[in-house]
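Researcher: Go.
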Amino acid sequence: MEQLPESLPSLEFRGLFAGHGRGDTVNYNRNPQDRSPYGSMSYKRTVCIEGEAYLKRVKKMIRIFLVRHGQTAWNKEEVFRGTADIPLNDFGRKQAREVGKKLKSLGLRDSLLISSPLARAKETAEIIGGFILSKQVRIEQDFTDTNFGEWQGKAKKVIERLYPELYHKWLTDPASLVLPGGEVLESVATRAKAALYRLAWDCREHDLIIVSHRVVNKVLLCCLLGAELNSFRKIKQATACINILDYDGLSFIIRTLNDTCHLLPLEQDDTTDF
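Model: Structure:
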């Protein structure tokens, strides 16, 4: 096997190929006596051959459009949604149409539509598909919203009153919060990140449109930025926003974050992050 390029970061290389190739997966057991940045010779021999060949020939980045679903009644009323299957409201459908128009204008390359299984995300994806001539929506369970447990279906004001300590932790230290009957952020990050890497690699000849949720998008962006999950609070995700990621077959670059400019024609200033 040929020597890998000097610039290839070993940790990202491991993350890319582990479990994704058709050949052997990476056995990341670095020999401390080996000065190579890629570990021991045995490590290099276990790299997936298909993956290495692809990296040598890839010339163009693919784009991944990470979209938050359009508005629902519970977004407007500040009610925690989670896995409750709430449909879009009329304004949310208008937002989805503006997302579709924007994506159509960007000249997508043989795009694929991927969505959380929840109705508000799936309907957003279907509306987008009407603009980009991609009617089929692939459902990805790992992009479903976080499970808020006992908080689901309750308004923010009610949560503040019934769970004052937990709500304070949600605002100040969400990464350590354990919701009654709910899901922790680390679990959301693990499943969503694994799905993103898998889809980016498996569908690497296509631009991807992924429609998901506020919490899912935020933890994914934290992971890609190398930020701790408590940085969740420092990232805004308005309904129907667009985040654009570049993927070169090795790593991700965030090009655009929380873009809502396409919503200006609606003449309604509703970019609330809830």
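Model: Residues 158 and 164 are 10 Å apart (CA to CA).
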